[in-house]
């Protein structure tokens, strides 16, 4: 079987000892574990012969792959013999028809969906050929809104780096969930109830996305955001009927890096009249890693506040922070080797906390880790290995890996960079930002996210800081606390961990609906389209 030559996202953090390995943890902040999320969008497109391929990536740094493999395997997310290397294979084999034909988008009907037909659901999947690469093809799912084609277009990005967005499709906010017998059940709180929803496997090498050339490997947000921008250009070329719709970027975890970078890239393209104008209205980051310097400092404060550590532990671990802070400053926004060093230095903070809390689930401190993964996503892997499913998706014999150790390693130099720096310019131009966080997540905790949002310098900073907190209610019950001023909103979600849509599906759907309509406090019954989708 041909291996997927591009790497997927790492979603879950390994247990403490594993977190500290050479190629540190998988998904998020510290020696963190990357969270999984959504699927990837890809559509077949012919590369523009007038554009020459980009030069080979600079500053590529590699680590022994054995450590990353152990990390992922410990998470139970990688098939026993998985090989997610760069270079190598061309188009996926198997499944009948020419390779390029299989790269075209297709309507899909996955086995096991009851109660609706394909025409009713408007489900699509496929690959887009990225024109400014040597051979990259991005895989995606596109679910038309169950309500109206005029609903906003929303793209979801899963973190890692290197974890497939399919995790979000099947376990968080997608149209359906997977039952224990591997049948699909429609999700009453899927975000496709109020939006035309895209999931993409990115960076290349994640999930079902792949490349025939190792030079398409990405190491930073510039490369990642350019690929995503090209993907969206292909998507809207294929679906011109959605070009005028409002557009929102969403995601969680390491997507706290991806999302601001993509928002800036789209805004830049719009200003330069580059390609199809994308009607960007806002971006939302869930339990993300965006400003490492501030967020790493919050680890001990959060752990102490939640009684995970004692005062003596707090004082001892805090002595590690000055070295971490200095290392992050040396990394800045464009460092390479210095950024890798800062990642290693700062991992000691998170690891020290985990050494004290044992098998506590760092994604939800109310729970214990189930094995080394903390969550069991094996049903998804089993489902996507089924021949009928692979034929429906048109992925040939590409081997699916939930979280790619290779992609994770390739992106390590990007981990400690500050992605908050580009956000103020977006706010000043009226593009909305929602930062939300489940209260029981340790790895990308609400406290660190709240602090970087409050510390961000923009014209509305003082008014945002002084704005009162308000209660976010769903069905009359308290579901969180929020504050907002102008285009900026922050929401602390109650009774949720790292993956808010999984833990609080109804609250997350209402959050998205109200935020897109401009008022988190607005009772959902008063919002347009409420009766139509419930």
TrEMBL record:
<keyword id="KW-0121">Carboxypeptidase</keyword>
<keyword id="KW-0378">Hydrolase</keyword>
<dbReference type="GO" id="GO:0004185">
    <property type="term" value="F:serine-type carboxypeptidase activity"/>
</dbReference>
<dbReference type="Pfam" id="PF00450">
    <property type="entry name" value="Peptidase_S10"/>
</dbReference>
<dbReference type="GO" id="GO:0005773">
    <property type="term" value="C:vacuole"/>
</dbReference>
<dbReference type="InterPro" id="IPR033124">
    <property type="entry name" value="Ser_caboxypep_his_AS"/>
</dbReference>
<keyword id="KW-0325">Glycoprotein</keyword>
<dbReference type="InterPro" id="IPR018202">
    <property type="entry name" value="Ser_caboxypep_ser_AS"/>
</dbReference>
<protein>
    <recommendedName>
        <fullName>Carboxypeptidase</fullName>
        <ecNumber>3.4.16.-</ecNumber>
    </recommendedName>
</protein>
<keyword id="KW-0645">Protease</keyword>
<keyword id="KW-1015">Disulfide bond</keyword>
<dbReference type="InterPro" id="IPR001563">
    <property type="entry name" value="Peptidase_S10"/>
</dbReference>
<keyword id="KW-0732">Signal</keyword>
<dbReference type="GO" id="GO:0006508">
    <property type="term" value="P:proteolysis"/>
</dbReference>
<comment type="similarity">
    <text>Belongs to the peptidase S10 family.</text>
</comment>
<dbReference type="InterPro" id="IPR029058">
    <property type="entry name" value="AB_hydrolase_fold"/>
</dbReference>
């Amino acid at each position: 079987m041909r291996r997927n030559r591009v790497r997927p996202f790492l979603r879950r953090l390994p247990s403490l000892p594993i977190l500290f390995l050479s190629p540190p943890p998988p998904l998020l902040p510290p020696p963190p574990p990357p969270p999984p999320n959504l699927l990837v969008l890809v559509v077949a497109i012919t590369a523009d012969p007038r554009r020459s391929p980009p030069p080979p990536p600079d500053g590529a740094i590699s680590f022994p792959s054995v450590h990353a493999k152990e990390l992922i395997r410990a998470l139970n997310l990688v098939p026993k013999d998985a090989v997610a290397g760069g270079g190598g294979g061309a188009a996926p084999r198997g499944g009948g028809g020419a390779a390029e034909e299989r790269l075209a988008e297709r309507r899909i009907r996955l086995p096991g969906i009851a109660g609706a037909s394909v025409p009713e659901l408007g489900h699509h999947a496929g690959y887009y050929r990225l024109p400014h690469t040597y051979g990259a093809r991005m895989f995606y799912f596109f679910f038309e809104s169950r309500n109206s084609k005029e609903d906003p277009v929303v793209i979801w990005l899963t973190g890692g780096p290197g974890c497939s967005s399919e995790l979000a499709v099947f376990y968080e906010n997608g149209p359906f969930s997977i039952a224990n017998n591997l049948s699909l059940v429609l999700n009453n709180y899927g975000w496709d109830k109020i939006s035309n929803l895209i999931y993409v496997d990115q960076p290349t090498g994640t999930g079902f996305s792949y490349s025939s050339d190792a030079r398409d490997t990405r190491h930073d947000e510039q490369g990642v955001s350019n690929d995503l921008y090209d993907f969206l250009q292909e998507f809207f070329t294929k679906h011109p009927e959605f070009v005028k719709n409002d557009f929102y970027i969403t995601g969680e975890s390491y997507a706290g890096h991806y999302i601001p970078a993509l928002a800036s890239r789209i805004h830049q393209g719009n200003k330069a009249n580059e390609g199809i104008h994308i009607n960007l209205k806002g971006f939302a980051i869930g339990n993300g890693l965006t400003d490492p310097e501030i967020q790493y400092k919050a680890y001990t404060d959060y752990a102490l506040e939640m009684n995970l550590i004692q005062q003596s532990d707090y004082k001892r671990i805090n002595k590690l922070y000055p070295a971490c802070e200095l290392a992050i400053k040396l990394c800045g926004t464009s460092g390479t080797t210095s950024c890798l060093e800062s990642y290693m230095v700062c991992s000691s903070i998170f690891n020290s906390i985990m050494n004290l809390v044992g098998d506590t689930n760092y994604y939800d401190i109310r729970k214990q880790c189930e094995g080394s993964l903390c969550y069991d996503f094996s049903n998804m892997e089993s489902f996507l290995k089924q021949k009928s499913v692979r034929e429906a998706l048109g992925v040939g014999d590409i081997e699916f890996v939930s979280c790619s150790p290779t992609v994770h390693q390739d992106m390590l130099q990007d981990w400690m960079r500050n992605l908050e720096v580009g956000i103020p310019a977006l706010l000043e131009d009226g593009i909305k930002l929602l930062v939300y966080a489940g209260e029981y997540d340790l790895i990308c905790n609400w406290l660190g996210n709240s602090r970087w949002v409050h510390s961000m310098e923009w014209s509305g900073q003082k008014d945002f800081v002084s704005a009162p907190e308000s209660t976010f209610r769903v069905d009359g019950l308290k579901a969180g606390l929020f504050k907002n001023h102008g285009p900026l909103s922050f929401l602390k979600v109650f009774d949720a961990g790292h993956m808010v849509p999984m833990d609080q599906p109804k609250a997350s759907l209402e959050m998205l609906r109200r935020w897109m309509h401009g008022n988190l406090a607005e009772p959902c019954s008063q919002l347009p389209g409420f009766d139509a989708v419930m």
